[in-house]
Protein: arginine--tRNA ligase
Amino acid sequence: LAFSARTESISTMANDEENVGNVKRLIAKVFELSLQATVPDEADVEPIVAASTVGRFGDYQCNNAMGLFSKLKGKGSGQFKGPPAVGQAIMKNLPQTEMIESCSVAGPGFVNVVLSNKWMSKSIQKMLRDGIDTWAPKLSIKRAVVDFSSPNIAKEMHVGHLRSTIIGDTIARMLEFSHVDVLRRNHVGDWGTQFGMLIEHLFEKFPNIEAVNETAIGDLQAFYKASKQRFDDDSEFKERAQKAVVRLQGGEKRYRDAWAQICAISRREFDSVYGRLKVELEEKGESFYNPFIPSVIEGLTNQGLVEESEGARVIFLEGFNIPLIVVKSDGGYNYASTDLTALWYRLNEEKVEWIIYVTDVGQQQHFEMVFKAAKIAGWLPTEANKYPRTSHVGFGLVLGEDGKRFRTRSTEVVRLVDLLDEAKSRSKAVLEEREKDKDWTKEEIDQTAEAVGYGAVKYADLKNNRLTNYTFNFDQMLNDKGNTAVYLLYAHARICSIIRKSGKDVEELKKTGILSLEHQDERVLGLHLLRFSEIVEEACTNLLPNILCEYLYNLSENFSKFYSNCQVIGSAEETSRLLLCEATAMVMRKCFFLLGITPVYKI
Ligand code: ARG
Structure:
């Protein structure tokens, strides 16, 4: 009796009007029901389901048998002879579902599932009709902060900030696609003691500060260097600079104005990078949280967490050999005071469930300490993976070809804008070399150069596991062969041109045509398409964009194989195969979108 109820719930789950989304989760759901029937006395056995390696015994595999067998045996149960018998029982108890074509048990009880071709075709066709957004992952949270990019005012915006910008934007995009409300936060360093010397130097150079325009200050990094020089060389200046910090923080108008002016110049420089990369960010810099710091520290102090140590006020944390300094010995606040307060603000004022910080791995300890303090204070649950939750997304260094920290040319500073412009001009040169300017408009050349150039920089960064260092190399990233954005963008354009060449109205085909997956290579491609949702979810929840890159690259490889073995235009299967082309192009475009890459439609 219970069984038929389950069968019903499964068939409604995968019925016509329901969107497919995460296939792995649907399969896991089926196994969950089977496990309940197989071992009704075992509460909440989590189904362990994984996609199988292509060409193996099935499409998905359930790996519960072995673990379950030892668990039962441990309890003295003799219900099963061995893991394979558990596997057999799990298979036998699988409810009826149109998703599954056949099952088998292999080795020590692995239950292999072959998806039904009919169900696969139908699901892809539904996506073609209803749009790719129906394949968006469903996450359990409503709102998240992604704290990324976050350069420092008047200091160099370096390749580390570029990595943060690229990785953070992709994470934000994946979350947004999954219907999470994302607060894209630029936590700019706009409130350090460096402002004392900058402001004093500004007053010295321009006694009539009201009349100074931004261009007069010129290169802010040179300006920073010069004021640092003054600070180090002249003790009288140093004293004035220290007083300036106090006057600025006290809110004195002349000082606030000078500060605002310096910030505005930096912001212009940052925006020229964001504009090129089409990255949106909302600036809520360190200064924003400043007014909240005293009460947050007071709260922690009242909880008995803050102690006096060598004149400073600190929080001692188990497992760390240094304490977290929350008030410096001179009474000033620091990076940690601001981050604790920003965390408090995000949790309490912005009611965010997941806060994600994207910085180089060098800052890992800082974040671990801040998170730990928040847990002790009871702001965050102590259990991992429970919400509200914080995550530090660390990344490695960008290296030059010499294997050292990346620098452009001989100057010590990397101007990010120059770097991006070079990527664009190099890809433009390639287009011109191929004489694209003969039949493309100037605008088309420019847009394609931009899409390819900036896309190459982004993809070269994102395709690596972010924790590893990566070597910045224009020739490599702009290569049209191999795992590069150029290759992928061209692959997409080629699919679009196949569809165009067919002369068919693909929008019309979506409504009337039938897609089927008869040929082996059609099926492999179709299965890969159907895995899109589970992959995005995996990349997003594990904060690993490289998983999505790998998926995209394999998609393109699967398409190539299909295209070389299955004739599309003029074949008996033309309609079905054009639909498969279109579905591939749609999924590719969504991948590009999530990676912040602009697709191109012709090459
Ligand atoms: N401004 C810092 C830096 O350039 C990054 C800030 C990261 N965000 C944060 N909430 N601490 O290294």
Q: What stands out?
A: The pocket of arginine is lined by residues 147, 150-152, 187, 189, 339, 342, 357, 359 (CB under 6 Å). The mean pLDDT is 92.
